[in-house]
Amino acid sequence: MRTVFEWEQPLVELEEKIQELRNCIYDQEVDFSEELTELERKADKLRKSIYERLTPWQRVRMARHPDRPTTLDYIELVFDDFIELHGDRTFGDDKAVVGGIAIFDQEPVTVIGPQKGKDTKENIARNFGLPHPEGYRKALRLMKQAEHFRRPIITLIDVVGAYPGIEAEQRGQGLVIAECIEQMSFLKVPIICVITGEGGSGGALAIGVGDRILMLEHAWYSVISPEMCANILWKDVERASEAAELLKLTPTDLLKFEIIDDIITEPLGGAHRDYEGIGRQVKAFLRRYLSEIRKISVDQLVEQRLKRFRKIGQFQEKQLVEPKHVKLNSEVDDESGGNNE
Amino acid sequence: MLSVFRSKPKFATVRPKAAKSINGKSRDLSDNLWTRCENCSALIYNKELSKNMYVCHKCGFHFRISAVQRLKYVVDEDSFRSVKPLVSKNPLNFPEYPEKIVQCQADTKLDDAILIGEARINGNAAVVGIIDFSFIGGSMGSVVGEQITRGFERGVVRNLPVIIISGGGGGARMQEGIFSLMQMAKTAQAVGKFRQSGLLYISVLTHPTMGGIYASFASLGDIILAEPQALIGFAGPRIVSETTRQKLPKDFQTSEYALQNGMIDTIVTRVEMKDLLGKLLSFHL
Ligand SMILES: [Zn+2]
Q1: pLDDT of residue B19
Q2: A37 and A66, same domain (yes or no)
Q3: What are the pLDDT digits (tens) for A213-248?
Q4: Fewest 10 Å CB contacts: which of A37, A133, B152, B213?
Q5: Is A229 on the interface with B (CB under 8 A)?
Q6: What is this structure's pTM?
Q7: A151: which residues sit within 8 A by CB, 6+ positions away?
Q8: How much distance in Å is there from the Cα of B189 to the middle of ligand 1?
Q9: Interface list for B 150-209 with A (CB within 8 A)
Q10: What is B179-237 written as a DSSP string?
Q11: If DSSP codes are grouped into helix, strand and coil, which group holds residue A214?
């Protein structure tokens, strides 16, 4: 059964009407073609007006659409000859993360991403795409393998967050995320990160440090999920839509903030409506950005990658009230003394 | 010994009440001379509590202290030189965030949730940063991220080891959204660059070190120390119990649990911290 969002309802009704009319034409050989064209024109217009004006919260829900392509779908759509590689060589194989080697434009690349399920059974097997530390360790192992064999890394990110479980904490969830972030930053191979659905906090950033960071049109990326934010602010998860507005988590916001480099537009109505279409889009963007960064020497690439993150942050120097009273024979060159008078 | 304290979710314990009692304004005691231990309920003479670095002499409970207080316990007298102060902006135009900052600045006398500069510890020079929980839960926004990063850069330039003492509730500064998240990458990279210089980084975890702070620079120390009974982890205990619907182990996410699971090097009491830090620094000259 198809999931239909409330804001899609008028469109769905119109589409049903068009279908009815089509059936009518087929059955009765009456000429409704003019009405049909008119209705289709109306549907197109409606589609555009609905999907171009989605609220941040609607986008979050689009990103979570049960039919949305998963990491393995993208691997199938975008790459050839994928060979999945398992395990972290320490503890186990986390099925919430998939990774391996594939061919992209005749060249081998390493592809890694969290993997959600499409139904309950699959979701249980995949732990709803919520990785344990061994999942991140697997990702890191595969990234280092890629560096060793000098193949580019492509991460496909769709994860609400790292799994908040007892064993996950016991095995060092926070520590392994930190290690992933640090080590990914210095890898001497081109890295492209694509946020395909949900970009939930540290669990996403752990595989999100790249030379180019792209985001699908109906994806979100934030330090906290709208529900958790609403829970903290108002103790009310029902107000997640308001929190989604405040968090500025849409690709448009993040492009403006220079956190991401580009937005991959989705087929009208979302990626789930046209797998082939979104596959072609992702492929075209990857091709463009991969060829762009392949031209840069790896040392330069790492330097630029570090610079990119180094400059993120919004702050200002504190205006000191009495600048004449500060400084003086201190050891610290730029000491001001104004920190805690 | 600390079972009463342990059995409760840690987030609900200390906070404003504790802050008040530290200031000697304990509610049920009118003479302001005594503080009741939050763990063992012992009445402690305030002067004695202060002399013992806000550690209960009876049960060893570590009270929450401010960054300024902690600085006194860790560095040599008059040796601290603060770095250039930075103040936060409001990148998302998050409602009431600037007001919150101003309020916290007034309450803590800090510019943001970190106090950082150069100091000496038993004569050994180092860059020392301390996160203050009472400034929006000691969360990491742009200012904390930038100051930590500059701290590591200063360490490289000045050939100094770095000590960061963490203690921030949720880790992320929600009001700065994606900018807060990106500080995790920025600080982790600063540690990575610092590492290449061959200098020592000691990370000290105090109650509580969670979320984005734990999942970035705080986990990346060459040596990781922790105060006893500190809450250390990625996801908060409430989220873990709500998600898993399992009963949490008694000592879940404590320093002792982290030590047992191999996540930290050792546990050090507040009273012994300075001497150990000094010794470690002297081993890495
Ligand atoms: Zn006590």
Answers
A1: 42
A2: no
A3: 999 999 999 999 999 999 988 999 999 999 999 999
A4: A37
A5: yes
A6: 0.90
A7: A101, A107, A108, A109, A110, A189
A8: 40
A9: 172-174, 176-186, 188-189, 191-193
A10: HHHHHHHHHHHHHHHHHHTT--EEEEE-S-B-HHHHTTGGG--SEEEE-TT-BB-SS-H
A11: strand
- To the nearest whole Å, the CA of B142 is away from the closest chain A CA by 5
- Among A3-17, A91-105, A290-304, which is the least confidently predicted range? A3-17
Angle among Cα A88, A186, A207 to the nearest 5 degrees reads 50
Task: Domain of residue A39: give its range.
Answer: 6-53
Domains, chain B, ordered by start:
30-63 (no CATH), 64-284 (3.90.226.10)
Range in A143-152, B123-132, B234-243 with the lowest mean pLDDT: B234-243
Residue A1 lies in a domain: no
Flag whether residue A240 sits within 8 Å of chain B, measured between CB atoms: no
User: Same domain, yes or no, for A36 and A173?
Assistant: no
Reported as a single tens digit per residue, the pLDDT across B21-64 is 444 444 444 457 899 999 999 999 999 999 999 999 999 999 99
ipTM of the complex: 0.91
Q: Is A225 at the interface with chain B, CB within 8 A?
A: no
Distance from CA of A18 to the nearest CA of B (A): 43
Q: Quick check: A316 and B87 CB within 8 A?
A: yes
Contact A264, A216 (CB under 8 A): yes
State in Å: Cα B8 to ligand 1 middle.
15
Q: Which residue among B82, B215, B249 places its CB closest to the CB of A336?
A: B82
